[in-house]
Amino acid sequence: MAEIIIVGVDGNSTSMKAARVAAELAKATGSVLRVVTAFGEDKTEKVAIGNDEWFLSTADEAERVAQRVAEELKISGVKTEYSSALGKPADVLLEEAAKLDAKLIVVGNVRMQGLARVLGSVANAVSHNAPCDVYIVKTDG
């Protein structure tokens, strides 16, 4: 069975930079890349335009982000999977890594500067608590 590399994404450009690096690592090692998105609360909102109504949920949106990123990365020839889960991003990544016995978690460093470093960033929390190796991608420049 192939080893698993996990990358956390939220749809922004810095997380995409980390995801691309994770895809390169997965391709080079023959690993499966698991794209993971977290969402803070499961809210559903009704949107009406004319006679049409849609229900939008944060859970569905998080799943769509993970799916979109996984599909984009699959083009490079890497095997991808995706998931989303309710919780803080670091907690979701750590739980997913433990559940899947992941070999590596890839995160960006964008929130490791200044006050965010003191308060605790995703990269900081993951690097201190991960059940596997952690690769921190320089995404801030």
Describe the structure.
The structure is a single chain. By secondary structure, this protein is α/β, with parallel strands linked by helices. The protein has a single domain (4-137), classed as Rossmann fold (3-Layer(aba) Sandwich), CATH 3.40.50. 43% of the residues lie in helices and 30% in strands. The chain contains five helices and seven strands; from the N terminus they run E-H-E-E-E-H-E-H-E-H-H-E. The chain has a five-stranded parallel sheet with strand order 5-2-1-6-7, with helices on both faces. Strand 1, helix 1 (13-29) and strand 2 form a beta-alpha-beta unit. Helix 3 (89-100) packs parallel to helix 5.
Summarize the structure.
The chain is an alpha/beta fold and 141 residues long. It is 43% helix and 30% strand. α1 links the parallel β1 and β2 (32-39).
Task: Please supply descriptive tags for the structure shown above.
141 residues, alpha/beta, Rossmann fold
How many strands? 7
Number of helices: 5
Q: What percent of residues are in strands?
A: 25-35%
Q: What is the count of structural domains? A: 1
> How would you characterize the largest beta sheet?
5 strands, parallel
Query: What are the secondary-structure elements, in order, as H or E?
Result: EHEEEHEHEHHE
Mean pLDDT: 87
State the CATH architecture: 3-Layer(aba) Sandwich
Reading side by side through the largest sheet, how are the strands ordered?
A: 5-2-1-6-7
Q: What percent of the residues sit in helical stretches (DSSP H or I)?
A: 40-55%
CATH class assignment:
Alpha Beta
Span between N and C termini? 36 Å
Low-pLDDT runs of 5+ residues are 115-120
CATH superfamily: HUPs
Rg, Å, rounded: 16 Å
Family: Belongs to the universal stress protein A family.
InterPro entries: Rossmann-like_a/b/a_fold (IPR014729), Universal_stress_UspA (IPR006015), UspA (IPR006016)
Organism: Arthrobacter psychrolactophilus
Protein name: Universal stress protein UspA
